[in-house]
Amino acid sequence: MHFRAQRKLQGEVSLSDALESDKDGNSLFLLDVVGVEDTMLEDLDAKDMCQRLRQVIRGCLTEREADIVEKRYGLCGQRPRTQRELAKAYGISRSYVSRIEKKALEKLRAELESWEGA
Fold first, then answer.
1. pLDDT digits (tens, 9 = 90+) for 34-54
2. What is the spatial distance between Cα 46 and Cα 54, in angstroms, rounded to a whole number?
3. Tally of CA atoms within 13 A in the half-sphere of 77 that contains its CB
4. Using an 8 Å Cβ cutoff, are 100 and 65 in contact?
5. If pLDDT is split at 50, 70 and 90, which confidence band does 99 have?
6. Distance between CA 96 and CA 63 in Å, rounded?
7. Whole-number Cα distances in Å, 111 to 5, 23, 46, 88, 97
8. Sequence spans of domains, the chain
9. Beta bridge mates, 21
10. Other CB atoms closer than 10 Å to residue 1's CB: what's the count?
11. What is the mean pLDDT of residues 26-30?
C-alpha cells in the first residue's frame, strides 16, 4: 500500500525538498534556488497606473506640456532629462521650462484628484 501511494507522488516536487547538502551538513532547498516573490498584482497595478497617467497626460495637457513632462520624468521608456536639456532642445530658458512643468503638474494633480473622487 505504501508503495502505491509513493508512486502517485513520484512526479511531484516540493519546494521544501533538499537538493544537496554542503560539507557542513547544511541543506540547500529547492525554495532557495527558485524562491521568487510573486509581484504579479503589484506589476498589474503599476501598469494600470501608468496607463491612467498616460491618458491623463494626453487628455488634459497641451502637446508641449505633455512632451516636457514625459521627457522631464523619463516616461515612455526615455531617460529623465534636466530642465537645462529641455530648454536647449526647445530654444527657451530653463526658468520657462520650470514654469511649464509646474503648471502641467498642477493640472495633472487636479485631474488625478478628480478621478479618485469619481
1. 656 667 778 888 888 878 888
2. 12
3. 0
4. yes
5. very high
6. 16
7. 61, 62, 18, 29, 21
8. 40-117
9. 27
10. 5
11. 71
User: Does residue 91 or residue 53 have the better pLDDT?
Assistant: 91
Burial group, residue 97, by CB count within 10 angstroms (0-12, 13-18, 19+):
buried
Largest CA distance in the chain: 84
The rounded mean pLDDT for the chain is 81
Distance, CA of 47 to CA of 99 (rounded, Å): 29
Instruction: Assign domain 40-117 to its CATH architecture.
Output: Orthogonal Bundle (1.10)
* Whole-number pLDDT of residue 77: 79
Q: Which three cell numbers stand for residue 99?
A: 514654469
Closest CA to 72 of 56, 59, 84: 84
